[in-house]
């Protein structure tokens, strides 16, 4: 934090502290000592957390900082935090859902006064931001007359500007930037027993896996191992703005923990299809106490589609550089849909840790193409072919035999073919893909082939892929949307998709015009019943 930034932060602190002191002093209740003690006892019960928060910080406190009662999701998430003293909770709440004030102020005070917190860490993206988080807590401890009346003067020594302070009851609070050391944290006999990793996700860092791993392992290793042996609550308030970033890394590391909890709250919900997601009549606000339906509509329409999806709906889609997400049409596929044929194509690589193995299976119906299966993973060829065998068996039961291809030069075929044949034997799959190699400029071919299918609106995606094949679908779609001519990033998915589109149109496509000589290989003349 520069001297100028520190000066501005101190001015902000002084102004807000004065405002909090004046507002809360005017709203103090006239009550007897017994009434006060009964009220405090009631407010400190975890089931009354919303009343507690709204009394000290919210709409009932006299503060202009809050403009609505707290929501049910504020209550529900905190109940889990209070009951599980080793929780790892992700608060993926939309921008404007009061993540920070509840996590870093409301939750902390309630835990502290219930003797559930002795050493809290507030972790920001950097040192300066972490100190700002700590300042919000200190200004309430120091200036909120409602807190002082009920729990006494709080501050003992230290200051947020120095990155730490202690309260008179011996509790310690420290600010740390994500890039600062976490090892060996201790205050007297206390180790950290609460940590908030607030808004630390970064879209640029997500493009650098080594940096994601570095900071992720600081949290799962250095921080987690620094926790008190009996308590160690970890809360991560950060909406889901990017894939393959810090949040995804941490969720993968904690996925087998019985203490993992993911609290995801979007700005609003709807009951209409994705194509009509901006209709003005069907939005249901998640925080009904604060937002009207019209206010939700105004917020959504004030942003571009991609920003709104990331910030308001925890849907971290990126605007495609060439292929746009809004041009990708998803649809429901009937269980017993009738196809003119099905075709799969694979883009393979020599090494497990090289390019991705990517595969796609298309269902062809007239001139329309439907993406029924996708595969995208860094793995051995055997793993990819095992998945292909699963596809073959799945669609054979429906009465279809796949027409399959893989991309390979003559030299590559010599390497791939023995592995593919062995994998087919191991998986009892008599269907073998054919090796083909397309010459010419790959990037121009991909751009032209996929763009043509999107422009003609003949390419559809099975919407169930988003759930039943989520990992593969997300990686496949990420590569498709990131593709641009001349790209040096992974392009295995768009490459295999273009080949599948072109081959499907070659072998199964037809024209509606009478007398057309377009080949009809694989088309059935009669409808299956």
Describe the structure in your own words.
By secondary structure, the protein is of the alpha/beta class. Helices cover 42% and strands 16% of the residues. It has 17 helices and 17 strands. It has helices at 3-26, 33-43, 49-56, 72-83, 99-113, 127-143, 145-151, 209-226, 246-254, 293-302, 305-313, 381-396, 410-426, 442-455, 465-468, 470-482, 492-507; strands spanning 88-93, 119-124, 155-159, 164-167, 172-177, 194-197, 233-237, 260-265, 268-269, 284-285, 329-331, 341-347, 357-365, 368-377, 403-407, 434-436, 459-462. Strands 3-4-5-2-6-7-1-8 form an eight-stranded mixed β-sheet, with helices on both faces. Strands 11-17-14-13-12-15-16 form a seven-stranded mixed β-sheet. Helix 8 links the parallel strand 6 (194-197) and strand 7 (233-237). Helix 1 (3-26) packs parallel to helix 6 (127-143), helix 3 packs across helix 5 and helix 5 packs across helix 6. The relative contact order is 0.09.
């Amino acid at each position: 934090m520069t001297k100028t930034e520190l000066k501005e932060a101190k001015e902000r602190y002084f102004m807000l502290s004065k405002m909090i002191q004046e507002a809360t002093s005017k709203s103090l209740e006239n009550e007897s000592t017994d009434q006060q003690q009964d009220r405090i006892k009631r407010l400190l019960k975890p089931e009354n957390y919303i009343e507690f928060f709204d009394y000290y910080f919210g709409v009932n406190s006299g503060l202009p900082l809050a403009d609505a009662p707290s929501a049910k999701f504020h209550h529900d998430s905190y109940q889990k935090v209070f009951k599980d003293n080793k929780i790892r909770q992700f608060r993926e709440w939309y921008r404007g859902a009061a993540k920070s004030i509840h996590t870093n102020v409301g939750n902390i005070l309630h835990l502290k006064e219930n003797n559930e917190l002795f050493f809290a860490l507030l972790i920001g993206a950097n040192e300066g931001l972490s100190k700002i988080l700590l300042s919000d807590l200190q200004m309430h401890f120091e200036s909120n007359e409602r807190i002082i009346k009920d729990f006494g003067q709080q501050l003992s020594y230290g200051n947020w500007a120095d990155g730490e302070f202690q309260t008179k009851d011996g509790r310690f609070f420290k600010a740390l930037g994500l890039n600062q050391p976490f090892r060996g944290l201790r205050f007297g006999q206390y180790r950290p027993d609460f940590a908030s990793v607030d808004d630390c996700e970064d879209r640029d860092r997500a493009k650098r896996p080594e940096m994601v791993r570095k900071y992720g392992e600081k949290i799962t290793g250095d921080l987690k191992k620094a926790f008190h042996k009996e308590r160690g609550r970890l809360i991560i308030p950060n909406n889901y703005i990017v894939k393959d970033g810090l949040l995804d890394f941490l969720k993968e590391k904690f996925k087998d923990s019985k203490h993992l909890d993911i609290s995801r709250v979007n700005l609003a919900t709807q009951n209409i299809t994705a194509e009509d997601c901006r209709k003005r009549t069907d939005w249901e606000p998640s925080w009904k106490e604060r937002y009207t339906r019209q206010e939700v509509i105004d917020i959504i329409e004030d942003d571009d589609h991609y920003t709104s999806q990331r910030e308001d709906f925890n849907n971290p889609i990126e605007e495609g550089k060439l292929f746009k997400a809004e041009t990708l049409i998803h649809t429901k596929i009937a269980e017993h849909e009738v196809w003119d044929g099905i075709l799969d194509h694979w883009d393979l690589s020599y090494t497990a840790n090289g390019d991705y193995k990517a595969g796609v299976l298309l269902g062809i119906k007239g001139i329309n193409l439907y993406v029924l299966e996708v595969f995208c993973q860094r793995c051995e060829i055997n793993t990819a072919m095992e998945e292909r065998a699963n596809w073959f068996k799945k669609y054979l039961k429906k009465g279809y035999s796949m027409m399959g291809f893989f991309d390979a030069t003559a030299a590559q075929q010599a390497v791939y073919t023995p592995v593919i044949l062995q994998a087919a034997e191991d998986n009892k799959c008599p269907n073998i893909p054919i090796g083909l190699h397309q010459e010419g400029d790959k990037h121009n071919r991909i751009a032209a082939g996929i763009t043509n299918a999107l422009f003609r609106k003949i390419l559809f995606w099975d919407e169930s892929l988003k759930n039943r094949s989520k990992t593969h679908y997300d990686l496949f779609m990420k590569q498709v949307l990131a593709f641009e001519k001349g790209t040096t990033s992974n392009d295995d998915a768009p490459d295999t998709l273009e080949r599948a589109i072109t081959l499907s149109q070659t072998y199964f496509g037809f024209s509606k015009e009478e007398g057309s000589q377009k080949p009809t290989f694989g088309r059935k003349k009669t409808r299956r019943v």
